[in-house]
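Supplementary material to the annual report.
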Amino acid sequence: MINYDYHKPAELADVFGLLEQHGAKAELIAGGTDVMVTIKQSNRSPEALISLRNLSHLSYIQKNGDYHIGALTTHRMLEQSELAQRELTALYQGASQVGSIQVRNVATIGGNICNAAPSADTAAPLLIMNAKLVLKSNRGEREVAIQDFFVGPSETVKEWDEILTEIIIPKPQGNFGSAYLKHSRRKAMNLPIIGVAVGLSVSKDSIITDARIALTVAAPTPIRVPLAEEFLEGKTLSDDLLKEAGALASSPECCSPRDSLRCEGWYREDMVRILIPRVAKEAVENVKK
Amino acid sequence: MNKITVNFNLNGEPVTADIPVTWTLLRTLRENFELTGAKEGCGVGECGACTVLIDGESVNACLYPIPEIEGKSVLTIEGVAHADGTLDPIQQAFVENNGVQCGYCTSGMIMSAKALLEQNPQPSESDIRSAISGNICRCTGYVQIVESIDMATKTQNVKNPE
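Predicted assembly:
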């Protein structure tokens, strides 16, 4: 049965008050493109929806040393941000490929992360950017590294009384470039079969000084691939080296993709192997921009 | 069922209505205002048949909680033609170019095209295809739809030379 009260607080303090009042029977809603779908498909609703859409002060993309992105920033804002396209390329690419324009106009980056789908298109880019998530509640404020945020499908370390307010992306050192590839059957309105994000810093003499690789739909949560990253660091960039990193990343030590409606696990593994070199090369290209 | 009073601008006119809080914008448009141009296809934001513009941006009305519409401006297919009945260049191009077969996706297609042309009056074919990528058509194979929108950019620019 669908029956809920709908609250539209304009201040964080009011959100905390409503959360206290309703406890776990309330659900937060931002763009609504996940929450409304779940309600419709299950034909069940929480007792109250607490809308975050009116916290308009949490919608921004700023750079002051580090990058600061408000949790209520829509995917469309990221897609149309020259700053994001130039300096947060993988995130720009991920955000631009979520759903459709209609979805991206309302769906927020905070929602994409807190919904914690193993396929979230902004998750792999944020993982390679070492993003920090600012969680606020009546009890105070804490920062959680995105690497520690996801626990399982739709499960995160965020407590019921906490709200994700901001995503902080530390300014990378050196010539850092990033890229994200969403491998899917259609270019639009589809979830990835596999998502690959790579961030690389390469010195003038072609030594890889920093390597970061993240995958979506390769495990129950979006993951980093530390074994393949360590393998790359300190070595001279070459096609063969990237191929070896791809093979390593597709091994069972690094990822565990499942069979699903969208695709079988063996194919996902094979695509990890094939796509990591491609995305890595694009990341290097994106440094030069 | 709790109701909420919402005030918003609908196709250029200020409106006020008492609507159950759990209704979406789509249900409100169709059942309260009897504007049945926006369709429910999938109901979960996949097909785009319910596309309307809110403050100029295309949105799936089927997922839009009605309490959020307070103070906003909504444009539906019913508000696209001019007051004297003259069709918008996009509508005219769909008519002339067979952009319509069964018609179910057409309202949403035209609203997505409308949002595109407001933001980018001279889109490339790739811009057009990308702009309607959230609108599914099962009849046309999209060719005549893309051609219609392309034709509209030309007629629109003839009517409003820069």
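Residues 77 and 107 of chain B are 6 Å apart (CA to CA).
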